[in-house]
Every structure is written in structure tokens, then in C-alpha cells.
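STRUCTURE:
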């Protein structure tokens, strides 16, 4: 192997022994007779020291390497309380695994602010930076713990198609593609499939899902390709059963991240307390009342960014549900309750991070609802068929992974939370 230890794995037991570490050269300080090299690996950093007179050839070779070159370094692990980690590697031999070109398109440790587009254009280098890496380590934790939570609650992980013959959310914001001469679309969400699965007896399913949305707007909170935790559960009494899963999943993952990712949270300067359960529920009607005190807002209007921000200013808590939306503001599959829908949004610091509902499970009612909205039910035959032969009451939610991270980590732009963002202007790298 090209390494015997990661930088953070070396312990006092290794002092006085030969070790091999490998990674990227972050910095070289050449003092003439002695040089100090900082090597970075996935766990952290270590110092390599070389004295010129001990090995002039090797000295010359390493100090002339461009920053960010990749090497495997071999030598004695020597205790030294004055350097990081309390030890240094006295270089005896090195393998150059990849020499970096110069100049670098952007720096890794430089404090100068690089603009976001340069960072995204060079994401592979951006991801070498501590702050960027920390976001994706927390993303990794969030998904792991959300999955663990859902599995413990009896949800099974499923993977539904991303190419489909009809638009899933009913809207027109779909990416169209050519499927062997026929029209097809990228799914906007797993909505139709996760509902079909409720007719199978699986009862509880979840998916780490991709959403593809041809939305025109270019904002700091929208992506054209985003990810979500989608769940669907059967035999619910009403939307409250679904909301409980959403809030408990959120608290479970936050607690786990607080326990396990303190290093990353410190790098990102995030200091938060676990919210208390249950999260407050605010009815849409109450939201209207609050908004009408300050702006012109009509019952039945959608809540946009401005309205969500204004509402948040009036509330003392950060995570809360908005419930009992007017039926017309919600998609066709939401269960009506008079003029309201059994639907909810989960808001985090004034931004929707999840939305869900109890669904219509009665075939006739669903067809009528779709027709009343002017939808062509013929396009939904495969979906509707699943409602005809035994479909239990069910509901679920879609929980935006990038939206959660953006709020949890206080990031200004949602693009920070996905490796290679897709927006109106960006389809590369
Ligand atoms: P909705 O369209 O509200 O509901 O999406 C659910 C959640 O997904 C996230 N999200 C997005 N994140 C970034 N960019 C986007 N363009 C984007 N669109 C959505 C948000 C949002 O709250 N099928 C339903 C869910 C359900 O009822 O189960 C749906 O897709 O965090």
C-alpha cells in the first residue's frame, strides 16, 4: 500500500518506527538547510521534515514539487511536541504519484476569497478545502442517520424510475427527452411511484431521491437537479402521523450530527441546540392573519420567499410546520378536508425544507379531483390503476436534503450543499 497510516491514525506507539503517509502537498517551507512540508490526507495534516545535508538529492526533489502534488512519503516517525499532532516524519524516501501543474486554478489554503463560480468550476480543488469538505461530511451523516432512523421505524429503501412517460407532479416544469423516438420525462419526484407502492403491502418506503425540475427561476434556494428524502406510509389516520415522522427524523439526525460531527460544525462555525418536540404547528389561516398585518396577502395565495421570511420574523422558533393549506395551493393528490388540504410544509428559518400530505386513496375521488383540475387522466392510467384494487389510506413527504443543509449550516446559497450543482446557467462540470 502507498500508506501505512492516515495522519490522524499515528499514535505514540508509532513513535520511533518507520511509517508511510500519503496525500497532497499543501505547503512547503524551505529554510535552506531544512524544509518542512505539510501533507494533507482525508483525515487531516502531518508535517514531513527533511534536512538537506542528510539527503541533498531528495531535498531538492521535494522542495521543487508544486503545491498539491500527490506523494507517498516514507521515514521515521519522530515525537516532536512543537509540531502539529506531536510528531513529524523524517523523510527517507518518497514516491511522486502525481505532479500538479502550475499555477493552480485556485488555492486550497489561501485566505483570499475566491468567487463562487471559480470554486464550482474547480470543484475538485474546492473540495480539498476544509470548509467545503465539512459540508459534505455533514451531508453524508445526515443521509446516513435519516436512513437509520427510517429503517428503525420499519421503512424499506426503494429506488423508483427517474425516466417516465408522464409528468409526476402534474405541472409543466419537466425536462423532456427522446426515449427511442417516444417522448419521455425526467421525474420531478418519486411521488407517483411511492404512492403505487402503498398498494403492495410494503406499507412504509423511503427513497434518497433525485428531483429534476425545469423551473426557470434562478435563486439561491432552487436547483434544477436536487435530492430529497422521500417517504410514503400506509394505514395512517391523517397527516399528523406523517408530520411526526418528519419532526422525529429531523431531531434524530440533528442529535447524531451534534454527537459525531463536532469537528465539522466547528469548522463551519455552527453552534445549535436541539429543537424541542413537537415542533409548533401554525395553520395557514393564522399565517394569513400575521401577514395581513403588514402586507397585501389574500387567502388562497401561495407563500413565496418574501412571505416565508416575513412570517419567520414574527416567530420565536426556527423549525415549525404550516398546516391546513387551501386545497388549491396543493397538488392533486393531497387529501381534501373541506376547503383545506391535509397537507403541510416544514419550515426551517423561513424556508420550506419539506412538504407532505395525506393523499387521496379513493379511486373515484382521485379521478374527480384530477378532472376538476383539468388534468388528462389518460396520462395517469398506470398510477390510477393502483388505486382500483385495494389501496389503503396513506401519506408521505419529500424532504429537500440541500434545503435542510443550507439552513442547518447557515449557508447563503443552496449550491454549497450539492457536489456539482445544476441551475439555469450551469450544466458543467
Ligand atoms: P415539493 O415540490 O414541495 O413536494 O418538494 C419537496 C421538497 O423538495 C425540496 N425541493 C427543492 N429543493 C431545491 N430545489 C428545488 N427546485 C426544489 N424543489 C423541491 C424542498 C421541498 O420542500 N411530491 C411532493 C412531496 C410529497 O408530498 O411527498 C413534492 O415533491 O425542500
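SEQUENCE:
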Amino acid at each position: 500500500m502507498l500508506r501505512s497510516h492516515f495522519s490522524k491514525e499515528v499514535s505514540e506507539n508509532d513513535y520511533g518506527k518507520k511509517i508511510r503517509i500519503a496525500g497532497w502537498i499543501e505547503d512547503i517551507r524551505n529554510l535552506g538547510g531544512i524544509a518542512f512540508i505539510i501533507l494533507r490526507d482525508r483525515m487531516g495534516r502531518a508535517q514531513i521534515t527533511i534536512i538537506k545535508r542528510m539527503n541533498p538529492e531528495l531535498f531538492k526533489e521535494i522542495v521543487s514539487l508544486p503545491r498539491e502534488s500527490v506523494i507517498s512519503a516514507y521515514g521515521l516517525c519522530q515525537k516532536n511536541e512543537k509540531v502539529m499532532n506531536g510528531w513529524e516524519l523524517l523523510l527517507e524516501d518518497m514516491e511522486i504519484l502525481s505532479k500538479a501543474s502550475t499555477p493552480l486554478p485556485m488555492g486550497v489554503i489561501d485566505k483570499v476569497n475566491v468567487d463562487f463560480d471559480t470554486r464550482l468550476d474547480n470543484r475538485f480543488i474546492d473540495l480539498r478545502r476544509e470548509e467545503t469538505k465539512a459540508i459534505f461530511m455533514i451531508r453524508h451523516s445526515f443521509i446516513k442517520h435519516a436512513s437509520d432512523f427510517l429503517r428503525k421505524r420499519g421503512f424499506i429503501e426503494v429506488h423508483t424510475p427517474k425516466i417516465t412517460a408522464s409528468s409526476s407532479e402534474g405541472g409543466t416544469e419537466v425536462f423532456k427527452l427522446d426515449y427511442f423516438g417516444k417522448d419521455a420525462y425526467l421525474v420531478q419526484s418519486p411521488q407517483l411511484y411511492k404512492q403505487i407502492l402503498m398498494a403492495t403491502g410494503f406499507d412504509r418506503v423511503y427513497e434518497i431521491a433525485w428531483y429534476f425540475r425545469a423551473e426557470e427561476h434562478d435563486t439561491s434556494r432552487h436547483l434544477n437537479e436536487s435530492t430529497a428524502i422521500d417517504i410514503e406510509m400506509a394505514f395512517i389516520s391523517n397527516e399528523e402521523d406523517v408530520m411526526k415522522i418528519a419532526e422525529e427524523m429531523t431531531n434524530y439526525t440533528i442529535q447524531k450530527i451534534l454527537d459525531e460531527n463536532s469537528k465539522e460544525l466547528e469548522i463551519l462555525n455552527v453552534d445549535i441546540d436541539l429543537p424541542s418536540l413537537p415542533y409548533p404547528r401554525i395553520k395557514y389561516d393564522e399565517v394569513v392573519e400575521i401577514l395581513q398585518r403588514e402586507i397585501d396577502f389574500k387567502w388562497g395565495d401561495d407563500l413565496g420567499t418574501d412571505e416565508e421570511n416575513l412570517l419567520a420574523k414574527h416567530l420565536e422558533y426556527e423549525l415549525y410546520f404550516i398546516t391546513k393549506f387551501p386545497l388549491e395551493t396543493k397538488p392533486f393528490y393531497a387529501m381534501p378536508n373541506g376547503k383545506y388540504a391535509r397537507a403541510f410544509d416544514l419550515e426551517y428559518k423561513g424556508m420550506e425544507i419539506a412538504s407532505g400530505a395525506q393523499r387521496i386513496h379513493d379511486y373515484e375521488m382521485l379521478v374527480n379531483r384530477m378532472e376538476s383540475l383539468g388534468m388528462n387522466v389518460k396520462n395517469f392510467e398506470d398510477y390510477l390503476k393502483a388505486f382500483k384494487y385495494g389501496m389503503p389510506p396513506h401519506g408521505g413527504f419529500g424532504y429537500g436534503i440541500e434545503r435542510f443543509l443550507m439552513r442547518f449550516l447557515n449557508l447563503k446559497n443552496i449550491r454549497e450543499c450539492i457536489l456539482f450543482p445544476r441551475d439555469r446557467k450551469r450544466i458543467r462540470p
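REMARK: The mean pLDDT is 96.
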